Amino acid sequence: MSNYIDLVPSSVSLIESLRNMGYSIETAIADIIDNSITAGADYVNIRFAWNSGDPWLAVIDDGSGMTKNELIDAMRFGSMNPLESRTIHDLGRFGLGMKTASFSQCRHLTVVSKKDGQISCCEWNLDKLSQADNIGWKLGIVDLATIRKRNILNSVYDESLAHFDNATIIFWENIDRAKEQVPLAKQESHFNALIDDTRKHLELVFHRYLSPDPGRKKVTITINGDELTAFNPFNPRNLATQELAEQKIVLEGETITVQPYVLPHHNKVSRQEYDQYSGEGGYLHNQGFYVYRNRRLIIKGTWFRLIKKEELNKLIRVRVDIPNSLDHLWKIDVKKSHAYPPESIKNELRQVIRKIEISGRKVYRQRGQRLLNNIKTPVWNRIALGGKIFYQINREHQLVKELLNTVPAQQKALVENLITTFESSFPVDMFFNDIASIPEQVESPKFSEKDLEILLDIFIQSWVSTGTPQSELPEKLLSTDPFASNQDITRKILEQRGYDCE
Ligand SMILES: Nc1ncnc2c1ncn2[C@@H]1O[C@H](COP(=O)(O)OP(=O)(O)OP(=O)(O)O)[C@@H](O)[C@H]1O
Ligand SMILES: [Mg+2]
Predict the structure, then answer these.
(1) Strands of 106-179, DSSP E
(2) Is the pLDDT assigned to residue 372 strictly greater than 60?
(3) pTM over 0.90
């Protein structure tokens, strides 16, 4: 028979280590807000101040609040076993978030909670845990008189909890992480920039709470009184966004819902809207699955290594909704910023990708096709031969024919060589790179009206001399490049000359 001894971890060493779990300030605040939402809050208010270099931050919610015993339990590291099942709306899992998220950013966490009018307050102060009279895991129980003496906490309390019967304040002081490795003179602006990033992060992560589907509860989140606006990465309100067929995958009796979207091509939306939905890192980077656990975004823009991120798929984003009952299979992490699909559904996800890839690519193909259809006599021909694709100048184009017919015989070879030189030195890599990264800025140089008119005369003369009736000229011109690609100016010139372009 074995003997057992109690081997309590050293609180200071353990918490110091847990501080480095990899939270950013955005993911830490999101983890705190998870608790507010789980507690049924309608309003979550984030307040912060730089406070002359001693910043503080408070997350205040009007959720259920906690009794003294509930609060003491909540302050425990590992307040709940991750293997225990949770109610379906619970955004928590590990019994750690409130503590680990807070200590990732600050050294002093105070929680004030009010339930049915009763106030309770507890604190973990990392700098005090190592002091002689406080060694071990001694939780600070704070009374109202002490709250009253702590100026900032007291004013946050007066502005919020004092007015509710049920509410909670998560209060961070001694926020050291936001200042680390930042020169003193830049710390304040750096802190403010972090809060700006946090705003964007929360607008995305909680967009389905900020702007809920019909029948779902709305949660209002503010930062220093300024309300957050939902950012839906699928841009579903734009009519040019394609919502493809929803698919359901059943696993252990639970349903995973997969909803693919193809975002609008840059030609279908304004420049501002295109940029807005590109997201940090651009469209190429942000293609992929967006996994939501109880409608809270966990991970975004990944194909889970099932396929590579490709230029042709860059407009595809797939919403995946998983219930919290499948957490154990999705390898959800404490920070709620990572998930990985179980082996058993990877194949189904691969099939989902295959189906939607076709639609995503169509957005590009259709455009290419349309261009080909409209222009019967292009300047450039696309030739697919033996698994390769070439772009060649169309030797049958009127202008090329005209040039080759009119140059003196001894210069004909020179002109032909010049054309071949253009073709073989087409800057494929540079062009691809630009189209991939800044498609909206890539344009063909435009013809001036005067130059186009000179060319138009050359075409008309040449066609008329070979017997083309005047009535057929507009249609012929408008389907020949460069006129086909400059429809508006060409029509204007033709109409001014009395041609009927309809
Ligand atoms: N704002 C709040 N309002 C009411 N109860 C809260 C609030 N914040 C935390 N709690 C309580 O404290 C408990 C511990 O929270 P904590 O974030 O540490 O763990 P969790 O949410 O259970 O799991 P996870 O580690 O996945 O976040 C919660 O389960 C909840 O009961
Ligand atoms: Mg939590």
Answers:
(1) 106-115, 118-125, 140-141, 167-175
(2) no
(3) no
